[in-house]
User: Fold this.
Amino acid sequence: MTTGGTHGGHQGGAHGMDFSSKPVLVFWETTKACMLACRHCRASAIHTQLPGELTTDEGRMLIDQIASFGGPAPVVVFTGGDPLMRGDIFELLEYAKRAGLKFAVSPAVTGLLTREKLEKLRDAGVTSISVSLDGACSGTHDGIRTVDGTFDCTLEVMRDAVDIGLGIQVNTTVMKRNIGELARIFHLIKGIGIRTWEVFFLIKVGRGAELEELDPAAYESSCNFLYDASKYGMVVRTVEAPFMRRVAKMREGGLYWADKRYTALHDELVALEGEPTFSSTISPRGTLDGDGIVFVGYDGAVYPGGFLPERVGNVREGNIVQLYRENPIMRDIRERRMEGKCGGCGYRAACGGSRARAYAACGNPLASDPACMLVAADSIGH
Assistant:
């Protein structure tokens, strides 16, 4: 599963790629059901399926709509909840395969995700799965996931996936509880053989609304650490932190701002891994919600992204192709018609700010991203 490693743009302009006609990724929240109850869950997942979930036939209809974007078609990410809680998930994967789509799956690490199930996913044509690791030890990870033993099971899933040749990405959500463990998390997954690390920056939606966000300085320190980590041969991406691309551009120019949290993470990384020997894998370009990404809820509702609950339509009543191409909000995002500091920022084309965080902060998806240090500095200056 990937969410932030591709490049957004409009009409081949400043971004260099054109996502005005189709996204690179379509996320389908196949169900709200999940055996876990993670403290930061975007979906506020529950143990049972909700009424109104897209049926198997409606799921096929959605897959047909996605295929109608034209080739190369977007990659479909079957997410949730836990997609394995749907009894028809493999039927839907087979249908997507016959439609000529590439697809990934984002399962929860529960008793459903056995080695045999991983092999079945691989054989079904899944290009990659993603699993979450939110701590370098069981105390942190299991505390966030609220189920004892999940940490050990997650490591076992990682090793099994690597062993059977199934692509796997590890996701980590940064929060106050685990920011000090980022270097150890990186060291742990790199030792297992993970090749892609996607780091999520908390958005106060779902159960995540109950958690306290990092301050802009901590986010900046985290991004500077991730830039360092990206020079050890692993693909590093961020979700809802497009200012990572601004940080990378600054670092390439010899500039950065960070505090003691960055210094501690940097020093621990070098102690664990030695000095880096590769070029950074941070992409200079990337997607934003509605710009290269679109999200379909369990009930067919369409949103610019999974963390941006601004409903733009429903696949039961309209076509996702038309909704993506014509919705005014998504067009504004693709055209970078942001407001405030984000609207006038010199890094606007490469970054654009988190539209989900802007919406969570003030109800306006085109407002400035309050987690960015440039926005924070501007606010302090005034």
Notes: DSSP finds 14 helices and eleven strands in the chain. Residues 1-16, 206-210 have pLDDT under 50 and may be disordered.
